[in-house]
């Protein structure tokens, strides 16, 4: 007769986070070994392609905090989030730079107006 297996954790449903495989211990007993979720390679925001490069590791989000910067990015502008094609085409990156500049301008104008309001009150 086949040996029955029991879950080693509390979760008793067959969910994605509760994946397991059967393994035989040195004592000949069958036990469940829990499988970790598979990590996906980061993708580019503009072209939806996988980011290539030695520096870009595919790990689960919680593990990213433990990695050093060189394991998460590539040394170019927007290295860990956008692919090289974006830089080559330049169109979207230029739009992004202009947008960032305009947002900063908007913030500075708001600061100036706030200072003028404060000076009028005094």
From TrEMBL:
Pfam families found in the cross-reference section: Ribosomal_L34e
InterPro entries: Ribosomal_eL34, Ribosomal_eL34_C_sf, Ribosomal_eL34_CS
Gene3D superfamilies: 6.20.340.10, 6.20.370.70
Domain of life: Eukaryota
PROSITE patterns linked to this entry: RIBOSOMAL_L34E
The UniProt record lists the keyword Zinc-finger: no
Annotated GO MF terms: structural constituent of ribosome
Keywords: Ribonucleoprotein, Ribosomal protein
Any Gene Ontology biological process: translation
GO cellular component, one term: ribonucleoprotein complex
Keyword Ribonucleoprotein: yes
Protein family: Belongs to the eukaryotic ribosomal protein eL34 family.
Name of the protein in its database record: Large ribosomal subunit protein eL34
Origin species: Candidula unifasciata
């Amino acid at each position: 007769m086949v040996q029955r297996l029991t879950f080693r954790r509390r979760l008793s449903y067959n969910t994605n986070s509760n994946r397991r495989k059967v393994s035989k211990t040195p004592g000949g007993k069958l036990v469940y070994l829990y499988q970790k979720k598979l990590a996906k390679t980061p993708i580019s925001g503009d072209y939806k392609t996988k980011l290539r490069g030695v520096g870009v590791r595919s790990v689960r989000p919680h593990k990213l905090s433990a990695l050093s910067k060189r394991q998460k990015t590539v040394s170019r502008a927007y290295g860990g989030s956008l692919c090289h094609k974006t830089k080559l085409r330049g169109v979207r990156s230029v739009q992004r730079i202009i947008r960032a500049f305009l947002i900063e301008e908007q913030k500075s104008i708001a600061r100036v107006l706030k200072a003028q309001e404060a000076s009028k009150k005094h």
